[in-house]
Amino acid sequence: MTVDDQQDASELMLPKYESAAGVHPPLDTQAYHSSRLRAPGRPLIPLPQRLTEITGPLLGPERVTPADADLTAGHVGEPLGERIIVSGRVLDSDGRPVPDTLIEIWQANASGRYLHHVDDHPAPLDPNFTGAGRCVTDSLGRYQFVTIKPGAYPWRNHYNAWRPAHIHFSLFGRAFTQRLVTQMYFPEDPLFALDPIFNSVPDPEARSRLIARFDIDLTQPDWALGYNWDIVLRGRTATLFEREQGI
Amino acid sequence: MSEGLTPSQTVGPFLSIGLPWADGPFVVPPDTPGSIVIEGTVLDGAGQPLPDALVETWQADPDGRFNHPDDPRGPAVAAGNFRGFGRSATDPDGNYRIVTFRPGPLPCPGGGTEAPHIDVSVFARGMLDRVVTRIYFPDEADANAADPVLASIADQGRKATLIAVPEAATQFRFDIRLQGEGETVFFDV
User: Where are the domains of chain A?
Assistant: First the structure.
């Protein structure tokens, strides 16, 4: 069958993305107080995956320069803090790599302060750290950032509330269904048990997938500690076309 | 599934460090002939605007085509500077704004036609996952009446939350109410 033969709408065969049911946090997580006025009260309505949902922006190299993946560069001096390498792969749930996809990250500095007018945490800003990075995965779905380890910081959710150290990640994948914004955490953070955002993920196994792994092989001697973190996006179930072609 | 999915987490209050782009709102470059503006306010359950939200849009081009390898009809013909994707952080008054083309109608697998629409994701502090909605157009009554997604919403008042409001010939308003009276219809995709 050629592409032209598929013009007939009744012949449209589209990939189908697997459900994320039970993985993502409920929008109305009461322990996270900011959700109280921002979570929809009505049930979500099922949206069948059609052309708009199985396509998506393929944003890649045109939005990124190689320097964007090094958050310690681009300033007069080096930022304070523990230099780290964060690296991993973007996969879909079939284990297939997601190549050429844009990743955007942002984070607090080593003192736990964001370069943002809303952040009034009395910890120092760092003139050598902005805290935003971007990169595109390679042909095997791999990505790598150089940055500093962000600090924990207080917030006002409840008395003596502190967020565990984290880096915000934004990913597109290749379809609207795959869009994901999440946070990467660091191993064995004592704040995990107390954090309503981390604990908003209902399944402990899924929650653990938000935690990077210290990686001595990724660690560079006399320079930076390595953390490995793979990100898994919703995968496609095999289409009729793929089954016929054996791909 | 062989690999467990990575769960969503909120964008938090500081998304503006990492996510807004200077050209984000421009699905087509400013002042492109034939372009339209879609603007609106993101409101919480108390009717207060969200100054820290991010609105993203994804849509077909005016011919109803996508520049995407998974569209079995093949690549879009008149792509030009049309990106299909828009991204606008809300301003201090909760307003977002997108400059784009009107999308064309889309064939459905198995027959039928989807009315011209734009898929929307909303991210904000207080939201542990994005919410997804759709913008339809007020001057597409016949197409909207035949649209399978709109048809799946029985309540006329709720359905109306998905129809943009005309403000001028090439300008539409689409407010997004996250909760409470007039709550926008959100989808599970």
Answer: 4-17+29-245
- B127 with A42: Cβ contact below 8 A: no
A32 is catalytic: no
Chain A CB contacts of B125 under 8 Å are 34, 38
Q: Is residue B182 part of a domain?
A: no
Class of the CATH-defined domain A4-17+29-245: mainly beta
Q: What is the CATH number of the domain that holds B160?
A: 2.60.130.10
Instruction: Find the mean pLDDT for residues A85-92.
Output: 98
Check: CB of residue A118 under 8 Å from CB of residue A111.
Answer: no
Angle at A176 between CA A171 and CA A179, to 5 degrees: 25
In chain A, DSSP assigns E strands to 16-17, 45-46, 83-92, 102-107, 132-136, 142-148, 153-155, 161-163, 166-171, 180-185, 213-214, 225-228, 231-233, 236-237
Inter-CA distances, A55 with A173, B119, B183, Å: 10, 11, 27
- B186 in any annotated domain: no
Alpha-carbon distance of A122 to A216, in angstroms, equals 34
Tell whether the model's pLDDT for residue B48 goes beyond 60: yes
Place of tokens 């089954």: A243
A83–B contact, CB cutoff 8 A = no
Q: Residue B39 sits in which domain range?
A: 15-177
In a domain, B1, yes or no: no
Q: How many CB pairs under 8 A join A and B?
A: 259
Q: Verify whether residue A114 is a known catalytic residue.
A: yes
- In degrees rounded to 5, what are phi and psi of residue A147? -155, -165
Whether B21 shows a pLDDT value over 90: the answer reads: yes
Q: How many angstroms separate the Cα of A235 from the Cα of each of A20, A130, A184, B74, B162?
A: 10, 34, 20, 22, 28
pLDDT of A4 > 80? The answer is no
Q: ipTM for the complex? A: 0.97
**Which percentage of chain B shows pLDDT scores above 90?**
93
Number of domains observed in the structure of chain B: 1
Distance separating alpha carbons of residues B15 and A104, to the nearest angstrom: 10
Residues of A in Cβ contact (< 8 Å) with B121: 176, 179
Q: Is A166 a residue of the active site?
A: yes
User: Residue B188 domain-assigned?
Assistant: no
Cβ within 8 Å of residue B142, ≥6 positions away:
none
Question: What residue type is A120 in one-letter code?
Answer: D
Cα of A42 to nearest chain B Cα, Å = 8
